[in-house]
Amino acid sequence: MIRLTKIFTFETAHALYGYKGKCKNIHGHSYKLYVTVKGKPISNIHHPQNGMVLDFGDLKEIVHNLIIEPFDHAILLNTHTQHKLLGEELHKQGHKVILTDYQPTCENMIQYFAEIISKALDSSIVLEELKLHETENSYCEWKRIDQ
Q1: Could you list the residue range(s) of the whole structural domain that residue 49 is in?
Q2: Per residue in 59-93, is it b (16+ CB within 10 Å) or e — as a string?
Q3: What's residue 68's pLDDT?
Q4: Cα R_g (the chain), whole angstroms
Q5: What was the pLDDT predicted at 83?
Q6: Which residue among 8, 16, 52, 98 is buried most deeply as judged by most CB within 10 Å?
Q7: What are the backbone angles phi and psi of residue 114, rounded to the nearest 5°?
Q8: How far is the CA of 81 from the CAs of 6, 9, 64, 84, in angstroms?
Q9: Please, are residues 29 and 15 in contact by the beta-carbon 8 Å criterion?
Q10: Is there a contact between 120 and 66 (Cβ–Cβ < 8 Å)?
Q11: What is the pLDDT of residue 133?
């Protein structure tokens, strides 16, 4: 089995409803997402991806469509809180808003990312690990082995 990783970056804002610290305010991060998948390299001389677990371009397309495109330069707000009203007002004003079913913490975001990426992969490829940097020196990890 071989693991391969591709790194993605995106800018996203959020606010944590009910939080007692500074993160209760709308603020943004330059997120860095490491996506690691695992599988066996294709062993078929006639296959265009012979020797690959997954074409890096294919992984890029999956992550771009599911995460980068929707989340980049968006604001995440919890739909189950009063932030829903704020999100609806910002949306009316033309802002890119994502109302989440979860408190938009780094931990909850990575769980959501794991769920949607896993569903998009071919059955021969396994999502092995995600690492999401919220800042240069603060990140969380999701590992399949822990699930």
Answers
A1: 2-33+40-146
A2: beebbeebbeeebeebbbbbeebebeebbeebeee
A3: 98
A4: 17
A5: 97
A6: 16
A7: -60, -40
A8: 34, 28, 28, 6
A9: no
A10: yes
A11: 98
Token code pair at residue 133: 């940097």
Q: What pLDDT is stored for residue 104 in this prediction?
A: 98
Question: CA dist 74 to 31, 32, 68, 70, 146, Å?
Answer: 12, 15, 10, 7, 30
> Tell me, what CATH number does 126's domain have?
3.30.479.10
Give mean pLDDT in consecutive 10-residue pieces for the chain, a chain of 147 residues: 97 98 97 98 94 96 98 98 98 98 98 98 96 97 96
Beta bridge partners of 14: 27, 76
Say how far apart CA 59 and CA 38 lie, in whole Å: 12
Instruction: Provide the number of structural domains found in the chain.
Output: 1
Residue 133: which of 101, 102, 110 has the closest Cα? 110
Q: For 37-57, what is each residue's pLDDT tens digit?
A: 999 999 999 999 999 999 999
